[in-house]
Amino acid sequence: MPAELQSGTFVPGSYRDRSARVFVAGDQVLRALTAEAADTWRRLQATDFWHRIQAAGQVVPTEECAGHQPWAVAQGYSLVLQHERVPELSWPWEWSFSMLRDCALLQLGLLQQALQSGFDMVDATPFNFQFRGVRPQLIDTGSFRLRPPHGIWEGYRQFCEQFLAPLLLQSWKGVDFQPWLRGRMGGIPLRQLAGLLSWRDLLFRRGAFTHIWLHSRVASVMQPQGGAEAASELSTRMILSNLHGLQQLLQSLTWKAVDSAWQDYYATAEHAAAHESEKSQFVRAACDRFQPTLTWDLGCNQGRFSRIAAEFGRVLALDADHAVIERLYCSLAAEPADSLPRQRITPLVCNLADPSPAQGWGLQERQSLQARSQPRLVLCLALIHHLVIGCGVLLEDVIGWLASLGAPVVLEWVGRTDPIIVSMLRQRRDVFVDYTHERLQAALSRHFQAVTEQRLSGDTRTLMLLVPQAAGGEA
Predict the structure, then answer these.
(1) Average per-residue pLDDT in the chain?
(2) Does residue 377 lie in a domain region?
(3) Domain assignment of residue 154, given as a range
(4) With the C-alpha atoms ordered 394, 399, 405, 410, is the resulting torsion angle positive or negative?
(5) pLDDT for residue 230
(6) Looking at the structure, do residues 191 and 284 belong to the same domain, yes or no?
(7) Do 65 and 133 lie in a common domain?
(8) In the 8-state DSSP scheme, what is residue 432?
(9) Beta-strand runs (E) in 176-245
(10) Same domain, 451 and 378
């Protein structure tokens, strides 16, 4: 992260789990456990279940850490764990449909295994997961606990509101869930989703009546009667049956975008195919020059240039089009496990004109994108005209924002005579007096040093490699 928290400082948002709070010390990500949580951890890490999910990469690598024990004890904790750091954090409202569904399925699978090993999970929120490339991974080891006698699944409603309801909304109604989750971090209340479903949905769609309508009206689940041992066995079987039903429901959900303007971009846009080779060579030369450990690919579309950058380091592939990110994620997830693009590219739904803000308690619980990630190279190809003409952002502000990222930028300028610009302006009044090559050069001179420039075939587009002046030369 660009602004590291001070050593021995709890991470904002970790207040939600008082028994296993997260703190940082330099680059280390640590977790302080109470005596009860420490006892659970010692029992957990001695099981085949724990070693199995660690070997499968389903949970963040974790080990005990004695170095920060005195600080933790002074805060009232008994044991410190150290987690392997997740390089780039993302939030559920930045994920695509299949990204959220894969995390939901992993949540259910982990809980099934935990129950069969005598453990439980106290919550079921997507914030407990992060992506390494396109592989979801549980990062909240504190969510495991010993299975209480004849206990219920306490995370059931949370799972339905933060996982199931958004996925049903997307699959059944074609409504993007990202704005809903961004607007309410607690998910979609079941009563609200039930109000959006028709009687046909409730009667004929699997899971609509039980997991949404009925669940929204039942405040608690009745405890089974009988002896404690029999009740515990019965409740566990009931929960496992419920989990199996939820798995089947999630696996049956599909979503196909009908209003995406960009998912077939390379198949329908002649200029994109014509310039692809030239742009690929330019991007590769920039990567060779700067050897970026992290690249932001703005407006990534199918991720063709993300794949080039992935040869050098990690990539955040950002696009405002949900269908584009869904398609890229699914294509990466289908690749072999040792594929560099699969391991290094994380696609995220991100509208740069309306990006994820800082949210939650004190506006620190969930950081904005720029506060949690620091690129070493930025790809801004065939995008700037969409921000200026499509979204109305001032050209000077776009250039200033790119410079504020503090990294070299590969910029593609699309001139006013380009067919795409002509088409865009045909549909609206041309008030974009700042969208000129002269104004671009003036803005660039205030913020960047030009390293190299190349005119693409067709003579309406130009590639530029730029270094922020604040970097004091080539980064």
Answers:
(1) 90
(2) yes
(3) 128-252
(4) positive
(5) 46
(6) no
(7) no
(8) -
(9) none
(10) yes
281 and 392, same structural domain?
Answer: yes
2 has a pLDDT exceeding 50: no
| 298, 379 contact by CB (below 8 A) | yes
Q: Is the pLDDT of residue 6 over 50?
A: no
pLDDT tens, position by position, 338-364: 999 999 999 999 999 999 999 999 899
pTM of the model: 0.92
Task: Tell me how far CA of residue 13 lies from CA of 228, 322, 393, in angstroms.
Answer: 36, 27, 33
Same domain, 236 and 304: no
> Which residues are bridge partners to 233 per DSSP?
none
**Cα 104 to the chain's mean position, in Å?**
13
Would 103 be classed as within a structural domain? no
The pLDDT assigned to 270 comes to: 55
Using a 10 angstrom Cβ sphere, with 0-12 exposed, 13-18 middle and 19 or more buried, the burial of residue 6 is exposed
Count: domains in the chain: 3
Domain finish residue from 252, 278, 296? 252
DSSP 386: I
Residues 200 and 247 in one domain: yes
215 and 295 together in one domain? no
Q: Looking up tokens 């506060």, which residue turns up?
A: 371
Same domain, 196 and 335: no
What tokens appear for 314 in the block? Answer: 């990690």
**Phi, psi for 62 (deg, rounded to 5):** -140, 140
In a domain, 15, yes or no: yes
Helix count (H) and strand count (E) of the chain?
21, 16
State how far the Cα of 358 lies from the Cα of 369, in Å rounded to an integer.
8
Q: State percent of the chain over pLDDT 70.
A: 91
Q: Helix, strand, or coil here: 32?
A: strand
Q: Does residue 168 carry a pLDDT above 90?
A: yes
CATH of the domain at 423: 3.40.50.150
Q: What per-residue confidence (pLDDT) applies to 275?
A: 82
The answer to whether the beta carbons of residues 443 and 414 sit under 8 Å apart is no
pLDDT band for 3, please (50, 70, 90 cuts): very low
Spell out the alpha helix ranges (H) of 2-118: 35-44, 48-55, 69-74, 97-116
| Of the candidate ranges 10-19, 105-114, 406-415, the one whose mean pLDDT is the lowest | 10-19
